[in-house]
Amino acid sequence: MTDQHADLDAALERVIEAARAHLAAVKTAEGRVDDDDVWQAYVALNNASYEYDERLLDAYGEVTPWDVESIDPNEADERFGVGLGGVDGTEAADPHPAVLSVRQRRDFQVPSVGALLRVAQAARRAGMPEGDEGDPVETVGEAVLELLQAGDGSLAALDIPELDPLDGVVMVSEVDTALDVAAFPDDDGDGPFRPGPTDRLVGRLDEHPFLPEDDHEDEPAR
C-alpha cells in the first residue's frame, strides 16, 4: 500500500470517528440550542469530510457527495456566534455585562363575566385529580390568574374569546441587577416593576389591538 493510499484510509477513518463523536454530542445535548460540544463536533466532522474529499480528488480525481468547505473554528465562532463561549471552551470576556429587563402591561375587557369564569373553572378542573373540581372561581381577577397559571405564566393563555384585549405596552430596559422576587412581599404589585435609579430605558413598544373586520367596514372612506 502506498503512502497516498494510507493517508486516504486514515482520512476516511477520521471522518467516521468525527461522525460518531458528532452523533454522541447531539444525543447528549438532547435538543439544546447552540450546545458548545455539538458545535465543536460539527466543525470537526465538517473539516474531516473536507480533508477526505480533497485527498480523494488528489488521488483519483473523484469527489464525495459532501459539498463542504473548510471551517476555521475561531473565525466562525466570532462571525456567527456559534457555540457557548467559543470553540476552545472559554467564554469571551464582555467588558459591558448587562441584564435586560422586559416589563409588559396588557389590559383586557370582559364581555361576559360568566363565560370567563366557566373557562377558568375548566382550566382549574383540568389541573386537579380526576373527580376533584377544586374551589369555584369567583372573580374575574381570579379567573385570569387561573388561566395564566394553567398556561405556565404566558400571556398567550389570555388570547381567548372571553377576553377582549385593550391597549398594552412593553418596555425594555438595561439594568444593573437582576430581579430578586423574594425581596418583595407577595402583595407588592409595584415594587418588582419599579425602575432602579441606574436603569436605562432602551425603548417602549405600544400595543394596540386590531379592530375586527366588521368595525373596519363601518369606517368612513378617506
Can you put this structure into words, describing what you see?
With 222 residues, this protein is an alpha+beta fold. It has 3 domains: 3-80, no CATH class; 94-108 and 163-222, no CATH class; 111-162, no CATH class. The chain is 41% helix and 14% strand. It contains 6 helices and 3 strands; from the N terminus they run αααβααββα. It has helices spanning 3-29, 36-60, 73-80, 113-126, 140-150, 213-217; strands at 99-109, 164-175, 200-207. A 3-stranded antiparallel β-sheet has the order 1-2-3, with no helix packed on it. α1 packs antiparallel against α2 (36-60) and α4 runs parallel beside α5 (140-150). The longest helix is centred in the first third of the chain and has 27 residues, at 3-29. It starts with a helix and ends in a 5-residue tail after the last helix.
Element pattern in H and E: HHHEHHEEH
In order across it, which strands form the biggest sheet?
Answer: 1-2-3
What spatial form do the alpha-carbon principal axes imply?
elongated
Low-confidence stretches: 83-90
Q: Supply Rg.
A: 28 Å
Number of strand segments: 3
| Mean of pLDDT | 83
Q: Kindly name the structural category.
A: alpha+beta
Q: What is the beta-strand fraction?
A: 5-15%
Proportion of residues in helical segments: 40-55%
Separation, N- and C-terminal Cα atoms: 85 Å
Number of domains: 3
* Largest β sheet strand count, sense and barrel closure: 3 strands, antiparallel
How many helices? 6
Short description:
The chain has 222 residues and is α+β, with helices and mostly antiparallel strands. It has six helices and three strands, in the order H-H-H-E-H-H-E-E-H.
